[in-house]
Amino acid sequence: VKYANDVSAFFFLLRWYHYDLSRHAAEALLLSNGVDGNFLLRNSNKGPDWFALSVRAKDSVKHFHVRRQFGKYSFGFNEFPSLQDFCSHFANQPLLGSETGSLIVLRFPYPRQVEEPSIYETVCVHTAMQTGRHENDLVPNAPALGTKEGYLVKQGAIIKNWKQRWFTLNRYELKYFKDKMFVEPIRTLDLTECSAVQFDYSQERVNCFW
Prior knowledge:
Layout: H1 2-13, H2 23-33, E1 38-43, E2 50-57, E3 60-69, E4 72-75, E5 78-80, H3 83-89, E6 95-97, E7 103-105, E8 108-109, E9 147-155, E10 162-170, E11 173-177, E12 187-190
Parallel strand pairs: 1-8
Antiparallel strand pairs: 1-2, 2-3, 3-4, 4-5, 6-7, 9-10, 10-11, 11-12
């Protein structure tokens, strides 16, 4: 028990250890706020002696297992005799290679606590418009302003090949066309019937979802 407590205490002092951060949350954090070469350490759901190193690599996030066994830490082809040695290894910006052939330099540890810039505007004008409306008239979900459009690559429903299609998003309707010049959409999706959107990590593509 003392060994486990010592490890937990040291990890708490490690500012880039994000303990209970999930895989999806780590990806969202590094993709939205991180830069190429950012990395963090978190717990793995593989077991109590397993950790995961999540690394921002250009427009994606790679995950690597770290194992603790008999007081030593195994990572890749290296074995570190102590947790301190394992952490010191990353201060030298090591080069990391993945199964897909990507080479990643671990440059910047992503801190567990990021201070929010204290930049706020002072309210100078705040007045009620005399419209005769009250709080019951407020719309809980404001509609999107304007139409978003562009090309996406879509997988076929029957033949599982990938084709480029022109998509338009207008409020709660998502339409896709054979090309930008076509007027009639191939299909219109009612987004009010959509309950969830999930990433698909089984595909060799960046930002793949269904």
